[in-house]
Amino acid sequence: MLDALPPQLAEKVQGLPVAYIELARSYRQAQATRTGTKPAKRNIRLHAEVAIAVNRQMVSDKRMLGLRSLKPSQYLDASITLARHVSVTDLIKAADEFRDSHLGEESGAASPNHYSISRENDDWLNDMMDELLLANTTGLHGHMVNVIVQSFLEQLRAEVPATD
Predict the structure, then answer these.
(1) If you write DSSP's letter for every residue of 95-122 in order, what string do you get?
(2) Per-residue pLDDT tens digits for 28-47
(3) Cα separation of 59 and 147, whole Å?
(4) What global pTM score does this model have?
(5) Beta-carbon-side half-sphere exposure of residue 8 (alpha carbons within 13 Å)
């Protein structure tokens, strides 16, 4: 998996778990200027709590990995890539629970933001909207994305080696 990364970037994430390797791959793809494929711009509304957590994790990772141009988009892209293998049923259940846990909040609904994600992840999100429609669960798409990102952040925090 590290073979796909430039040596300097591979060295920064060597020994770290898969979530960090996927983040590095997303970072590399975002930094590539000659790939011929532009990333998709996606309008995504993250819950305020999730958006704040992404920013905090990003600042921490910038310092730990020395990647000064790390962006929130790379976290969304990496989290979606890792979630693509999860069953639709499990994603619907988790999205339902996320929505229910935030019902009645007066704050929390962050304004939409545009994130750059890979074309494959953009296509997968479009397919997921169809799957949600077929499962008669319209309105869960945004909650599903929040769950995916929140789960990815939990993986990063749980897997980071402790520093003294």
Answers:
(1) HHHHHHHTTT-SS-BPPPEEEEE-HHHH
(2) 888 876 556 678 888 888 99
(3) 21
(4) 0.88
(5) 4
